[in-house]
Structures are given as structure tokens and as C-alpha cells.
């Protein structure tokens, strides 16, 4: 225990912290526990042990279709927000033009705008344009909300790049493209990867934009889960949820390995 | 000797910036252009739709569903004057404020322990705080639904009744309290992370000095730690408030009919009633609320009206 905390103050601090850790983990652990319950309804305490609900979920056409759509959508979103966001981050860090601060504010503004309203506004405009393909509409909406994350992480890592190395490469005769590939990109690779992973995870879990732009034919995982939650009462819902929790854990561990969680999430 | 040193100093100080200015001048145009695709994309799919939504909120929808003139503020008036809708606005404000205050009170201890413990403990706490952030909100809402379930089969009621704390099951699900609990769970990391980063920047010598001069732990906290962590608090409070006010999933799963928030009302107006102008007006009120809170927070943070930790 740290010597800075002592006596009654330390007791309060550690008690509240431990309580909050329990508060954070409880609903997730409960969902996982119930998913292996050998009963036809979700009840507490869970009874017995079975994996049959996982078997049911993995044969559920709706869920598998949704999974496929969500993964493809998240991959497309990652590619789109990297393609648009990485060059924009370059302009923000290396550029030296009038209105730079205002442009940076504009590019990051989807972060403070309520996502629910971003989706609603986009739905109105896309409807007017006659854009009927839900997959394309979802892709556009997801890139709008994920690109600021990419810009933010890439800007942070670009600011740490040593420009002297680039100058050295240029002096030694490398052209601009070679310098970028061989000198700059390796230095920002972890930032770009973290931004891409972030975009993937935000897209995969997104509800507030997705709910406006999806339709009955193309419903990503969060929407299908929400529908099941209202209509299905057996432990297949917790089994689906557990699969999603485990996927998120893999993402978290990857992010921690790539850049460290605190740095990845720092504003 | 002196002159050559001067010459080196002068060259050293001036030559690189001059060269750099030269290269910047050549690079300025192309580098700036790299932002154009992103700007165009956001202008067309984010900024323009927002303006369109604003316009719909002050226009009239005819019986065929076409939105046009005359311009009117009637939709905004309706939100405030019709008691049913006004109540949703107040519920939203109440839930958002209570959630933000609770998050602040509970996040300070967690952030303090996170910043000042051994690296191992810091790592574990960080992982636990952040991990759920990446789990779908629907899953987390569902988890709370299972815990708070009304009747003896809910986890909370089962535990309380087994321990004989209560004799009859509590009814927590489908109340505002359930929405506050769910929102707190979903947005708690948004308070802990900025607080931890502000607390981490405080010079520990300041607190040590206060302690050595005889201040008890609570006075050290109130007079040194708390004032110096204000930037983190302001940032965290703004985030939690904005995100709670704009939520849809948590009130839909945990609030039921008794804790409808603005987001749920908007969805209902658009998907059930098809009243676009009214839905847009509610949306704009929500945006106004969120932007106002963010504006105040930026004014506090950037105007250096708060003492920042050095």
C-alpha cells in the first residue's frame, strides 16, 4: 500500500474504489454466468451448466447474418476513416495555413455532437437524396462518427515524430514518398493502428447512428440484440452478449498491447 | 575566440529556423490540401444534414409529409407547453445532472487510487475501468436489467431477500433510478479518465508540503488536490452530462414508460408519428443543451479561469 494513503482517508478511498470495480464488473459477469445456465428462462441464481445456448446462437441465421454485416461494416468503416482521417491529421500537424484551429475544431466536432442527432440528420438528407442502400448509408454514418477518433490518435502520434529524421532522409536523397514510407510511417504506425482499431470497435458497437440508417434487411448486431432482448427470454440472449463481451476483451487487449490504454483514450 | 563562438551561436540559432521556414513555405499548400477530402466528406454528410435538420424544425409539414413554408416556432413552443413533452425534457435534465454528480463523487476516489498506487494496481484498475467502455451499450443495459429485475428472480432482489435485508422484492427496474444506475455504469470511465489525467499532473510535493504543515487528509484534498484537479472535473462532467442527455439505449432498456428521455421521444416522433419537424425541434433542443454545456466548459478551460496544475 502506498504511504501517501493512510488512516481513515485511505480506508474510504479503497472501499469506494473496490465497490466501483464490483459495480463495473457485476453486470458483465452476471451476463456471462447466466449464459451457461441450464434453464429455459433467464433466472438468478443460474442453474447447472450447459453450452447449448451457444450452440443455438451459432445456428441462428439472423445472428450470423448480423455478425457478418457488422464485421464487414466495421472493416469498411475502418478503411474509410483511415483513408480520410490520416491525411487530414497530417494537414493538421504539418500544415501552416489560415484557419487551422477552426478546421481542427470542425473535424473533431462529431465527437461532441450527440451521435443520435448525427444519425437522424443524416437519415433525412440520405432519404431526400434517394439513397436506398442501407449498407452504404450505414458506412457513411459510421465514417462520420469514427473519423474524429482516427484523426485524434494520429495527430497525437504525429506530434511525437522527430522531424529531424525526415530532414536527414531528405538530405540523403530520399524523395518525399520514400521518406514517408520508410521514416514517418514506422514512427506513427502504432497510432494509426490504434486509430483503426478504435474505428472498428466504435463502428461494431454503434447504436445511436445505426438505429436510424439500418432497415429490416440489413440490421447490425446491436440492433438484432436489442430486438432479441424484447422478444426472447431464454439464455440465448446472454450467450450472444457473452460472445460480444469476449470480442470486446480481445479488442481491449490488442489496444493495450499496441499503444497502452491510457494513451489511446487520452483526449 | 569570442567572435567565432558568436558566429556559431548566431548560425546555430538562425540557420535552422530559416531553412525550416523555407521548407514550410514550399510544403504549406500541398499539406493543407490533404485535409480536403475529409473536410468535404464531413461538410456534406455532417454539417449540411445538421443545417437541414435545423431548417426542418422551423418549417411546417403538410398532410403528404412534405416539409416547407410557412416558417414557425410552433414545434419548439409545443415541446415546452405540452406537459407530456415538457416532463420528458425535465426528466432528461434531472437524470443527466444526477448521473454526472454521482459520477464525480465516485470517480474521485477511483482516480486517486489509480494515479497514486503501485503500477500493478494502476494497471488493473485502468483495465477494469476501460474494458466495459468497449462492450456494447445494449449488452451493459441488458446486464443491469438482469440485476435490477423486479420480482424475486432478479439478482439484487434475490441477494437482498436471501440476506433478509428486505422482505418483499424491490421495484427498481423501469424507474429513473434504474436509468441513473445504467448511465453511471456506461459513462463512468468518461469521468475517471480526465480526472486521473488531471490528478497525475499535480506535483506531489504540494500535497506533501500541506501534510507536513499539519493539514489532515481531508483538508489536503479540499485545499490542494481538488482545486488543482478542476480541469479534469470540468472535462469529465461535460462528457458525462452530454452523453447521458443524448442517450437512447439505456432509458429504452431500463426506463420503460416511466423514464422516457429526449432521445426516446425523438425516435417515437420520427418512427411512429412521422412528425419530422417536431422530432427535429426536440433534436435541436438536445443539441442546444449539449453545445451550451460544452461551451461553458471550453470557456472555463481555455480562458484559464481555472488554475491548471503546472
Can you characterise this structure?
The complex is a heterodimer of chains A (267) and B (310). Chain A is mainly alpha-helical and 267 residues long. Chain A contains 12 helices and no strands. Chain A has helices at 7-34, 52-59, 61-94, 100-108, 115-129, 134-159, 163-171, 176-205, 210-213, 221-231, 236-258, 261-265. Chain B is an all-alpha fold and 310 residues long. Chain B has 14 helices and 2 strands. Chain B has helices at residues 2-33, 36-57, 74-81, 83-116, 119-130, 137-148, 155-162, 176-200, 204-212, 217-228, 230-245, 249-255, 262-271, 276-302, and strands at 60-61, 67-68. Chain B has a two-stranded antiparallel sheet. The radius of gyration of chain B is 26 Å and the shape is globular. Chain B starts with a helix and ends in an 8-residue tail after the last helix. At the A-B interface, helix 1, helix 3, helix 4, helix 5 and helix 6 of A face helix 1, helix 2, helix 4, helix 5 and helix 6 of B.
What labels describe this entry?
heterodimer; A: about 270 residues; mainly alpha; B: about 300 residues; two-stranded antiparallel ribbon; 14 helices; 2 strands; about 75% helix; globular; disordered N terminus
Amino acid at each position: 500500500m502506498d504511504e501517501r494513503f493512510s488512516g481513515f482517508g485511505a480506508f474510504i478511498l479503497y472501499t469506494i474504489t473496490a465497490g466501483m470495480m464490483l459495480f463495473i464488473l457485476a453486470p458483465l459477469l452476471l451476463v456471462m454466468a447466466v449464459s451457461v445456465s441450464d434453464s429455459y428462462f433467464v433466472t438468478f441464481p443460474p442453474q447447472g451448466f450447459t453450452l447449448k445456448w451457444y450452440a443455438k446462437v451459432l445456428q441462428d441465421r439472423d445472428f450470423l447474418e448480423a455478425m457478418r454485416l457488422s464485421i464487414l461494416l466495421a472493416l469498411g468503416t475502418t478503411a474509410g476513416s483511415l483513408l480520410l482521417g490520416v491525411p487530414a491529421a497530417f494537414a493538421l500537424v504539418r500544415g501552416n495555413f489560415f484557419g487551422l484551429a477552426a478546421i481542427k475544431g470542425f473535424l473533431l466536432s462529431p465527437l461532441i455532437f450527440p451521435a443520435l442527432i448525427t444519425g437522424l440528420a443524416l437519415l433525412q438528407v440520405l432519404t431526400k437524396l434517394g439513397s436506398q442502400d442501407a449498407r452504404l448509408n450505414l458506412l457513411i454514418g459510421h465514417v462520420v462518427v469514427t473519423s474524429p477518433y482516427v484523426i485524434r490518435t494520429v495527430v497525437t502520434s504525429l506530434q511525437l515524430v522527430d522531424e529531424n529524421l525526415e530532414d536527414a532522409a531528405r538530405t540523403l536523397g530520399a524523395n518525399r514518398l520514400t521518406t514517408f514510407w520508410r521514416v514517418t510511417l514506422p514512427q506513427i504506425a502504432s497510432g494509426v493502428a490504434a486509430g483503426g482499431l478504435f474505428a472498428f470497435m466504435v463502428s461494431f458497437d454503434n447504436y445511436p447512428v445505426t438505429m436510424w440508417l439500418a432497415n429490416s434487411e440489413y440490421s447490425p448486431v446491436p440492433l438484432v440484440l436489442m430486438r432479441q432482448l424484447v422478444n426472447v427470454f431464454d439464455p440465448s440472449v446472454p450467450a450472444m452478449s457473452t460472445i460480444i463481451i469476449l470480442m470486446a476483451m480481445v479488442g481491449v487487449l490488442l489496444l493495450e498491447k499496441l499503444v497502452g490504454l491510457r494513451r489511446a483514450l487520452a483526449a | 575566440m569570442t567572435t567565432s563562438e558568436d558566429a556559431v551561436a548566431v548560425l546555430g540559432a538562425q540557420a535552422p529556423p530559416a531553412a525550416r521556414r523555407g521548407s514550410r513555405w514550399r510544403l504549406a499548400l500541398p499539406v493543407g490540401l490533404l485535409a480536403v477530402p475529409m473536410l468535404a466528406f464531413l461538410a456534406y454528410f455532417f454539417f449540411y444534414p445538421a443545417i437541414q435538420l435545423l431548417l426542418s424544425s422551423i418549417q411546417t409539414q403538410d398532410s403528404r409529409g412534405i416539409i416547407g413554408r410557412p416558417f414557425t416556432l410552433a414545434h419548439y413552443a409545443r415541446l415546452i407547453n405540452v406537459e407530456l413533452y415538457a416532463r420528458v425534457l425535465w426528466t432528461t435534465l434531472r437524470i443527466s445532472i444526477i448521473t454526472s454528480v454521482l459520477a464525480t463523487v465516485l470517480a474521485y476516489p477511483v482516480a486517486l487510487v489509480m494515479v497514486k498506487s503501485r503500477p500493478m494496481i494502476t494497471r488493473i484498475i485502468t483495465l477494469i475501468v476501460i474494458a466495459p467502455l468497449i462492450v456494447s451499450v445494449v449488452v451493459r443495459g441488458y446486464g443491469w436489467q438482469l440485476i435490477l429485475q423486479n420480482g424475486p428472480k432478479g439478482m439484487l432482489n434475490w441477494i437482498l431477500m436471501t440476506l433478509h435485508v428486505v422482505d418483499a422484492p424491490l421495484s427498481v427496474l423501469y424507474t429513473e433510478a434504474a436509468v441513473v444506475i445504467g448511465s453511471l455504469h456506461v459513462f463512468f470511465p468518461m469521468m475517471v479518465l480526465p480526472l486521473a489525467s488531471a490528478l497525475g499532473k499535480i506535483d506531489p510535493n504540494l500535497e506533501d508540503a500541506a501534510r507536513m504543515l499539519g493539514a489532515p487528509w481531508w483538508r489536503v484534498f479540499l485545499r490542494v488536490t481538488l482545486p488543482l484537479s478542476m480541469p479534469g472535473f470540468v472535462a469529465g462532467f461535460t462528457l458525462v452530462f452530454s452523453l447521458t442527455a443524448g442517450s437512447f439505449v439505456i432509458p429504452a432498456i431500463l426506463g420503460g414508460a416511466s423514464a422516457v428521455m429526449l432521445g426516446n421521444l425523438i425516435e417515437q416522433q420520427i418512427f411512429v408519428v412521422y412528425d419530422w419537424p417536431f422530432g427535429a425541434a426536440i433534436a435541436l433542443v438536445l443539441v442546444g443543451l449539449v453545445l451550451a454545456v460544452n461551451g461553458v466548459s471550453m470557456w472555463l478551460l481555455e480562458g484559464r479561469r481555472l488554475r491548471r496544475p503546472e
